[in-house]
Amino acid sequence: MGHLDKGTVNPARRDDESRFPSPAFLSAVGLTKTFGGVRGVDSADVAFHRGQIHGLVGQNGAGKSTLAKMLCGALSPDRGHIEVEGAPTVFGSPRAALEAGATMVAQELSLVPPLTVAENLLLGRLPSRGGFFDSDEMFCRARSLIEDSGFELDPQAVLWTLSQSDRQKAEILRAIARNARLVVFDEPRSSLSVPEAERLYEILKGLASDGVAVVLVTHFLSEVLRVSDVVTVMRDGRVVMTAPTDGLTGGDLVEQMVGSPGVEHFTSRQDKPPAGSTTRLETKDLAGQGFEDISLTVNDGEIVAIVGLVGSGRTEFLRTVYGADQPTGGLLLLDGAPRRFRSPRSAKRSGLAFISESRQTDGLFHALGADVNITIAHMDRASRFGWLLKGPLRDRSSDAARRVDVQAQSLSQPITTLSGGNQQKTLIARWLVRPPRLFLIDEPTRGVDIVSTTQIHNVISDLAEEGMSVLLVTSDFDEALAVAHRIYVFREGRLVGEFKGEEADKTTLLAVAFGADSPKATDSENHALGD
């Protein structure tokens, strides 16, 4: 694919004109956006047509989300304009974009937690009768929308009580309820299970068949190729390729994204952990909210992955190990000694570190710089008598950031100005100021581009080689196969399988996670559990 000109459609694929209906509903014309001297989007030209699913891919920091936000009025361009059915315009706000027919499902959810699901779905369009709010009609409309989508969601549930997965569904349905003619989905499946993601893709296809222009921003290359009609690749803020997806491969997209061939999505499978490893963490019949009877081990210098579907108890188990939630039964041992952490603070004092699945809500301090975000868990190393010292702050944060290759013009710049991949690497760096004995990581590469994913995997491998124990939770079975020495499979709150990394394969892991009735899955599961 290296022969494609930047910002052009592959001429060899223009034979099927039905894939490029004319005219476009919405076009970006020379859109440019700069942040503090850094050009986030540089002269982007791309057209979006009704009836198409248009994939938008690129590394974190390539400009995808910035472009998407300009398309839907969340950001105003420094230069260039938008054309809606050929008429030039610039959206001054999301409301102005919505009035023109464009809206967005943002990567970071924008719902109102104290309101019900129904109120969030119809916010701004709440029904009334005789001048009074009609709650019965609101719940009726919301219920109909949920049933049509195929998602399982309670319209009367208060949003803040819901899981991240259910909040993601509500965000998606709110965009659909607006009856827009262009809908941008920015990483819409990041918190969805495999079946929910498949249902989402059916919804996208349904919107396209109804004449909606669907823009899908995603890091899942195989899925964007399977679902999309057209794909645009961005690199360093520029549009470098737009082409129909027929005949394209993930390797073609990667080559365009990084500017050269040979970058793999994942690191190679791990070597076996060092001989003579001792047990760092052991749980015996551990039980808590959402899981029960979990017995597993993590050795020193070992990377262990937990996989399973959303709702399988993976995250709840990890939070309980770290003391964020309390167990209801069973035993936890650290280096052979029984322990019960009453809080994350006590776990941290014992040499544990934890990164949540949601860096935006549970990890980052948005008002602070990257340097303070890195050192905040160990402020005693950058302060004296309660006063922050610039020298130690700079030195400690720089050393930790260098280990994970955080890319930033200055570590003092606000954390919100960094790409998602660099924000995630910042969270890893936070725990390297004083390296832990056991590193607990929930979704280490969620919403992270291919290059940053590989870098994070390499960092995790390096930490294990230095003797650190790593227990990670991931929704990406390929990721578990790529980095883990051993893999545990959770299903419905129970441990249902254990596999050595070099012996596992994705088909078997998925079968066990789904409880598939296949000989391969049954044999593997029984063998893994010692039945």
Index terms:
Rossmann fold; 18 helices; 33% helix; 6-stranded mixed beta sheet; disordered N terminus; globular; 24 strands; single chain; alpha/beta; 531 residues
What does this entry show, briefly?
The protein has 531 residues and is of the alpha/beta class.
Please explain how this structure is put together.
The strands form six sheets. The chain has a six-stranded mixed β-sheet with strand order 6-9-10-3-11-12, sandwiched between helices. A six-stranded mixed β-sheet has the order 18-21-22-15-23-24, with helices on both faces. Mean pLDDT is 81; it is low at 1-20 and 517-531. With 531 residues, the chain is an alpha/beta fold. The protein has three domains: 1-11 and 21-101 and 180-260, 3-Layer(aba) Sandwich (Rossmann fold); 111-179, no CATH class; 279-351 and 436-529, 3-Layer(aba) Sandwich (Rossmann fold), CATH 3.40.50.300. The protein is 33% helix and 25% strand. It contains 18 helices and 24 strands. The protein is globular, with a radius of gyration of 24 Å.
